[in-house]
């Protein structure tokens, strides 16, 4: 897995894919309410809004999300990979949200 805090650059398409997954994760947990999701994470709503707009995601933030949203894994956040810890039900819901939001 690429260390997103290293000097390795993330391509524009990778950054956009991460941004989209952040929106999907928020929709999964709190629907349209960014502020509620930010509270769940313990971050300022402006910070979360910036991430959804495409600001870089630090490894610390990705770990925070994975820790506070147990249905989600770090590999999903950073790479879009559904590992065995993501249940079939959550996988279907994430895929449905992705289609609804970004197709």
List the main descriptive attributes of the protein structure presented here.
434 Repressor (Amino-terminal Domain), single chain, disordered N terminus, 103 residues
**What is the CATH topology classification name?**
434 Repressor (Amino-terminal Domain)
Shape: globular
The CATH architecture classification is Orthogonal Bundle
Order of helices and strands: HHHHHH
Distance between the termini: 27 Å
CATH class: Mainly Alpha
Tally of contiguous helical segments: 6
In helices, the fraction of residues equals 55-70%
Instruction: Estimate what percentage of residues fall within beta strands.
Output: under 5%
Summing up helix and strand content along with how strands pair, one would put the structural category as mainly alpha
Number of domains: 1
Largest sheet, if any? none
How many runs of DSSP E, i.e. beta strands?
A: 0
Mean pLDDT: 91
Describe the 3D structure:
The protein contains 6 helices and no strands. It is mainly alpha-helical. The chain has a single domain (12-102), classed as 434 Repressor (Amino-terminal Domain) (Orthogonal Bundle). Mean pLDDT is 91; it is low at 1-7.
């Amino acid at each position: 897995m690429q260390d997103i805090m290293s000097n390795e650059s993330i391509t524009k398409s990778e950054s956009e894919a991460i941004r989209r997954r952040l929106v999907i994760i928020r929709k999964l947990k709190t629907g349209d309410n960014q502020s509620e999701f930010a509270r769940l994470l313990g971050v300022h709503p402006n910070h979360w809004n910036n991430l959804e707009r495409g600001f870089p995601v630090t490894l610390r933030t990705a770990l925070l999300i994975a820790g506070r949203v147990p249905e989600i894994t770090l590999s999903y956040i950073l790479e879009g990979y559904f590992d065995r810890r993501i249940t079939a039900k959550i996988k279907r819901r994430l895929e449905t949200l992705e289609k609804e939001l970004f197709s």
